[in-house]
Amino acid sequence: MLTSDFDFHLPEQLIAQQPVAARDASRLLVLHRDENRLEHRVFPDLLDYLNPGDVLVLNNSRVIPARLRAVNPKTGGALEIFLLEENSPNDWWAMMRPAKRAPIGSHFSLVNLRGERNAISVKVIDTNDEGHRRVNFSGEGDISEVLDEFGEVPLPPYIKRQAGNSAVEDHERYQTVYAQERGSVAAPTAGLHFTDELLEKVRARGLEICHVTLHVGLGTFAPVKTERVEEHVMHHERFHVTSDVAEKINAAKSAGRRVVAVGTTSVRVLETMARANDGKIVAGTGRTNIFIYPPFRFQIVDVLVTNFHLPRSTLLMLVSAFAAPGETRGREMILAAYAEAVRQHCRFFSYGDAMLIT
User: Fold this and answer.
1) How far is the C-alpha of 165 from the C-alpha of 161, rounded, in Å?
2) Where in the chain is the domain with CATH 2.40.10.240?
3) For the whole model, what pTM was predicted?
4) Contact 242, 249 (CB under 8 A)
5) What would the pLDDT profile of 289-314 be if each residue is shown by its tens digit?
6) 244 secondary structure, DSSP code
7) Residue 121: how many CB atoms within 10 A of its CB?
């Protein structure tokens, strides 16, 4: 299968730059897989498609303010530090721009949100094949404890903000209401549509709500650059599943009840576990680079809540696989649904509208 098979035209004006006024005010495009039929609804109508006994699985990873500013104390040269993954306290992998200003051994001073230099210093100690820098922070305890003072919301590149001026509402809205475990550098965006009130209605309908954790990495935005899909190598992301959640999901599957995954990140956790454990979910912590594309047979997830994804992206390939499990025709189904979404002026990507595949 070719990467170009997953391309589609998207008018730039349909890329959502701001969240809608209320989280659950977004639209919901429903794809009925068996009938290949579409419905246009609004997000609170999700309740109409949920059954008592279903298990709703949410990714509770919390986005950290991962975009930092720094200066070279000798030259005054400015650069951006985008935190990617913590190795241990004050030891991180990061992207630094411009990279040519950050060779191994270089030192920098952090700048807070007011543009003031601080006693916290940054030293580059290593690089990897992707050009990322391993950096050590020193001068004020654990950097993760003061990120709110120094870091900006790590919005994806297609959401345009002036440098150093992320909107105040981004700090709240680029975060799910149930976010708990700090570690993501991008939001699990399908969950952005949920409110506390809507989740209470989900519980009142007789569903169980479970949380898994997958810390979303910057690779979630990485385009597939290989000509053939299967040649692409996925990035690794850290995940965690508790024993209580594992028991609830396994019990649901054994009883023939549905598992409703909110977001591709939740899917990746569940299907990673299933492949490693004969179709079961087990408690544990790990890293996954599972790449889901057509044809793929899903063992756990029965229903998917997701957003509209970028052309040629691994996320678009995952939802194409889910539209027709074990077959390749899901690509045509999803691209047809996206074409309809474009015709109806749906909003795309992180702050955009939602899709339910059932």
Assistant:
1) 6
2) 67-150
3) 0.94
4) no
5) 999 999 999 999 999 999 999 999 99
6) H
7) 16
Helix then strand then coil, % of the chain, to nearest 5: 30, 30, 40
Q: Which CATH class is domain 3-63+171-357?
A: alpha beta
Residues of the chain with CATH 3.40.1780.10: 3-63+171-357
Percent of the chain scoring above 90 in pLDDT: 90
* Single-letter amino acid, residue 216: V
CATH superfamily of 67-150: QueA-like (2.40.10.240)
Each residue of 134-176: pLDDT tens digit?
999 998 789 999 998 899 999 998 998 875 555 678 999 999 9
Cα distances (angstroms) measured from residue 9 to each of 4, 13, 205, 336, 341: 12, 12, 39, 12, 12
Q: List all residues 6 or more positions away from 111 whose beta carbon is below 8 Å from its beta carbon.
A: 69, 70, 71, 78, 117, 118, 150
